[in-house]
Every structure is written in C-alpha cells, then in structure tokens.
Specification:
Length: 163
Amino acid sequence: MNSSNLKVSIEVREGESPIVSASFEGSVDEVMKSVYDFLSKAIPQFSLVNKITLQLPSAYELVEKISDKVKVCEGQIMFSDAARELQTEERFTLALVASHIGNKIGLLPEPSLSVKSLASILGVSEKTIMNIASLLSKRGLINRPKKGVFEINAKGIALTIAK
C-alpha cells in the first residue's frame, strides 16, 4: 500500500439498510480528517465522544510540532540550539517523544530510552534522570516498560507538544 495515496470507503448502516456512504482519497492525514468529519456528521455521538477523548496527532503532525527542537540523526537524538534553553524536564519528555516518533517511522529500534541514554542525550547524571523520571511517572506522563527504561505515554505526548 502506498501511504501517500490512501482510498477509503465508508458505509453507515442501521440493521441491513445503508443510511449513508462516502469515499475518500488522498494522503493519510487528509483521508483521516475527511473520515472524522464524515463520521461526526453521520453519527453525532461520534463527535461528542471524540471531543472528550484524547486523540494524538499523527506522526507527521508530531514531527511538525517538535522538529524545531529535536532531531534524530544516525540513530541518535539531538537537540537544536533552541531546545538547549528548555528545562531538563522538558528536554527529557521531548527526547522520549522523539524516540517514540523515531521508532514509529523506522529511524530508531525502540520507542523507549534507557537511563544511560537519557543521561547522555541530556548531558546530566543518571541520578538526575532517575529523579526526573520519578516525578514524570507520578504525574502519569511516562511508563517504565522495564527497569531503567522509560517511554512516553499518550498523556505525556499531549502535554509535551502543547508547550
């Protein structure tokens, strides 16, 4: 499947009778927006549910939001000069968002980062990383899939890109 040109057909039925149908074609983001708009009009409850549900941006939208601050180059996460002025906690979550995105688009092998990797990326001690991780974990922004490894979760992504 060529992800740059997606075709989607939708049919909403009540029992066996079709109520409404539509077809959409375009980029993944264009089609998803069209599908969302269609479903919001065809099924009003869909719109209400989506208004109170946390919906993460697409990988493309995430990259657009953070690319001025952080990059992935040759499997390494690096900060721009603009990000160097951010607090360590903010750079911590940005690094995890970059790792999440980098994994989704095939640039990084894992969506998570180890304490050692985070310390190296941020230029701080492993003790500092553990302190920040403890704080972020208590706030429900990161997960610990295994000892000494952290990854951002949906809430963490949403709050990181909102800044």
